[in-house]
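Task: sequence design from structure.
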C-alpha cells in the first residue's frame, strides 16, 4: 500500500521501449518532426497569426481609430494574475502608440468578478469611447449592452466558458474558442488572448524593430498569466511560457525585476514554471485577494520609476505573508468541519475572507479528491469559490442550479458565484444530490500517474538531459515520473526544520542515488523497517558548490507489494 494512500497508474509498460522512448510516446512525440518542433520551436514562425482569431481585424481597426482620434480608452481587467498581467500587456502596448489609455480593475470584495455597472457609469462621465476587457466580459451581456447605450464600444478579450447569454452588444469579441472560429489553439488564457491582440496591433503597425522587440518583451508578462491560470503547457501556451521564462531574468519591466528579488529568485538564474507558479504569481495574486489589485498592475507597468517599483514590490511581499496566514487558519477550520460521507464539500463562514476561499476550496479538493465550494458569509448574501478534480465539471453543476444564483462563471475545474442567504439551503441540498448521483460508484482514491518503470542503468545523465529538454513543465506536460521497484534502502534520516523531510540513500544493481522526500519525515519508521521499497520519483539534477549529481525527488513509496 502506498504510504500516501494513492493508486499508482503506469502509463507505459512497453518492455520493448527504452525509458526515453516511453517518455516521448506518452507525450505524443514519437514522430521525429514533431519532436524537433517541440524541442526547438521557432518563435518567429511557430506563433499563430493573430489575425486568424475571429474578430481580430475589426478589433484592431477600432483601436487604431481610437488612437488616431485621441479617444479615451479604458483597459478593464480581472483582479487575478491572468487578468492583471493581460491588462499590463495591453496598457504597455497602447502606451507604446501614445494612446489616451487608462485602466480599471474591480475590487474582489466591493465589486465582484467581471464588468460592473458602477464602472460603466464612471466611464460615461469620463468620456470613454472604447472599453477593452481582459480575462472577463464574456458573461457580462447586460453590462456590455449598457455600455453600448451610453456610447461606449466594448471589445471583449476573454477565454472563459462562453455562456448562452452571449454579449451581442459588444463591438467585437476575441475568444480563441469562439463558435465558428478557426483559431488553431483554443486554450489560451486571458493574458494569452491579450498578447495576441497586442501582437496584432504591433504587427499591423509595422513601425519596425521597436515593435518586434516589444512583442518579445511582453512574453514574460504573458507567461505569468498562462502558468498562474493553469493553462495547459502545450501548443501556443508552451511557446509563450518557454520564451517568457527566457525573458524573465532580463525583463524589461522594472517592477517585475524587483518582484523577483523580493520573491528570493537569484538574479540571472535560469527559471522554470515553479518560479512563476509558487514565487511570482502568489505575490501578484495577494493584492487582488486581500487588498487592491492596483498595487500589482501598477508594479507591472512601471518603467522608469525605480523607487516606486521597489515600494510596490515590498507591498506585495507584505500582502502575500498576510495572505499565507489567513489561508492556513481558514483551511485548518474548514478541514475540521469536513464531512467525509459527502461527495462534495460545501461550507461557509463570515470569517473566511473572499480573497482566500478559492485557495481553501482548491486545497480541500486536491486533498480529498472531490469538488469543493467555499463561501464567505456577508449576512444576507454569500460569495463562493468552487474547485473540482478533473473528473467533475464544476461549472456544469453550478449552471444546473443557476436559478438560485445572482451571477456565476468559470471553468470546468474552477468557478465562482454569488447567492442570497435565502437560496443557500435549497442550493446546497440540490447540488449535493446532483453530485452524489454524478459520482455514484466513482473511486475517490487519489491516483498518481507514472510515466513508466525505470531500470537502474537508465538512471543517468542522458535521461536527465532528455527530461530537461522537455521543459517548461505544467498542466498537460508534467515532469516525468518513474517507479523504481525493489530499491534497497541503505540509509534513511529525517532532515530539515522539525524533521519534516526525509533523506534516503538508495541502491539497486550497483546504481546508488540520494533521494529527498519533502514533508514525508513522518514516515521515517516505515522506511527503516523495510529493506526495500517501490519508489515513485522525479529524476533531477542537483548542483552544489560546483559539483553535480543525480537526485531522486521522491513523491510516494510503498512496500514491494506495490500500491493498488
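Answer:
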Amino acid at each position: 500500500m502506498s504510504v500516501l494512500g494513492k493508486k499508482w497508474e503506469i502509463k507505459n509498460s512497453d518492455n520493448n521501449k527504452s525509458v526515453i522512448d516511453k517518455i516521448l510516446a506518452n507525450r505524443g512525440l514519437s514522430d521525429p518532426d514533431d519532436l524537433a518542433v517541440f524541442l526547438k520551436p521557432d518563435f518567429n514562425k511557430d506563433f499563430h497569426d493573430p489575425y486568424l482569431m475571429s474578430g481580430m481585424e475589426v478589433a484592431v481597426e477600432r483601436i487604431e481609430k481610437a488612437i488616431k482620434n485621441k479617444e479615451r480608452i479604458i483597459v478593464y481587467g480581472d483582479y487575478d494574475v491572468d487578468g492583471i498581467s493581460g491588462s499590463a500587456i495591453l496598457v504597455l502596448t497602447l502606451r507604446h502608440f501614445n494612446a489616451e489609455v487608462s485602466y480599471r480593475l474591480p475590487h474582489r470584495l466591493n465589486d465582484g468578478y467581471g464588468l460592473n455597472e458602477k464602472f460603466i457609469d464612471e466611464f460615461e462621465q469620463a468620456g470613454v469611447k472604447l472599453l477593452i476587457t481582459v480575462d472577463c466580459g464574456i458573461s457580462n451581456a447586460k453590462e456590455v449592452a449598457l455600455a453600448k447605450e451610453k456610447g461606449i464600444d466594448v471589445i471583449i478579450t476573454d477565454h472563459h466558458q462562453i455562456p448562452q447569454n452571449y454579449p451581442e452588444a459588444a463591438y467585437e469579441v476575441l475568444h480563441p474558442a469562439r463558435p465558428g472560429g478557426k483559431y488553431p489553439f483554443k486554450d489560451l488564457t486571458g493574458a494569452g488572448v491579450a498578447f495576441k491582440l497586442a501582437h496584432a496591433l504591433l504587427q499591423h503597425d509595422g513601425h519596425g524593430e521597436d515593435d518586434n522587440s516589444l512583442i518579445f518583451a511582453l512574453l514574460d508578462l504573458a507567461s505569468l498569466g498562462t502558468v498562474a491560470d493553469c493553462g495547459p503547457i502545450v501548443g501556443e501556451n508552451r511557446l509563450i511560457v518557454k520564451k517568457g521564462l527566457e525573458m524573465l531574468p532580463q525583463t524589461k519591466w522594472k517592477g517585475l525585476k524587483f518582484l523577483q528579488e523580493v520573491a528570493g529568485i537569484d538574479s540571472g538564474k535560469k527559471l522554470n514554471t515553479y518560479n512563476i507558479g509558487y514565487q511570482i504569481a502568489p505575490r501578484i495574486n495577494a493584492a487582488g485577494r486581500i487588498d487592491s489589485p492596483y498595487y500589482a498592475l501598477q508594479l507591472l507597468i512601471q518603467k522608469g520609476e525605480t523607487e516606486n517599483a521597489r515600494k510596490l514590490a515590498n507591498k506585495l511581499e507584505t500582502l502575500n505573508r498576510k495572505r499565507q496566514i489567513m489561508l492556513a487558519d481558514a483551511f485548518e477550520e474548514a478541514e475540521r468541519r469536513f464531512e467525509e460521507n459527502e461527495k462534495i464539500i460545501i461550507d461557509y463562514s463570515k470569517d473566511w475572507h473572499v480573497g482566500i476561499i478559492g485557495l481553501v476550496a482548491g486545497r480541500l479538493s486536491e486533498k480529498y479528491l472531490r469538488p469543493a465550494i467555499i463561501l464567505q458569509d456577508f449576512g444576507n448574501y454569500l460569495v463562493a469559490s468552487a474547485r473540482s478534480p478533473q473528473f467533475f465539471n464544476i461549472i456544469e453543476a453550478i449552471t444546473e442550479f443557476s436559478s438560485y444564483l445572482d451571477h456565476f462563471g468559470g471553468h470546468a475545474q474552477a468557478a465562482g458565484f454569488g447567492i442570497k442567504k435565502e437560496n443557500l439551503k435549497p442550493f446546497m441540498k440540490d447540488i449535493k444530490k446532483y453530485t452524489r448521483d454524478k459520482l455514484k460508484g466513482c473511486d475517490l482514491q487519489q491516483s498518481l500517474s507514472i510515466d513508466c518503470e525505470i531500470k537502474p542503468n537508465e538512471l543517468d545523465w542522458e535521461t536527465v538531459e532528455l527530461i530537461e529538454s522537455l521543459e517548461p513543465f505544467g498542466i498537460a506536460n508534467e515532469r516525468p515520473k518513474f517507479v523504481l521497484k525493489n530499491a534497497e534502502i541503505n540509509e534513511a534520516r529525517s532532515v530539515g526544520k522539525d524533521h519534516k523531510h526525509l533523506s534516503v540513500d538508495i541502491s539497486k544493481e550497483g546504481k546508488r542515488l540520494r533521494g529527498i522526500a519533502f514533508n514525508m519525515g513522518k514516515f521515517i519508521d516505515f522506511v527503516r523497517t523495510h529493506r526495500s521499497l517501490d519508489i515513485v520519483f522525479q529524476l533531477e539534477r542537483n548542483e552544489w558548490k560546483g559539483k553535480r549529481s543525480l537526485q531522486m525527488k521522491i513523491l510516494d513509496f510503498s512496500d514491494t507489494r506495490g500500491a493498488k
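The domain at 50-240 is CATH 3.90.1640.30 (inorganic pyrophosphatase (n-terminal core)).
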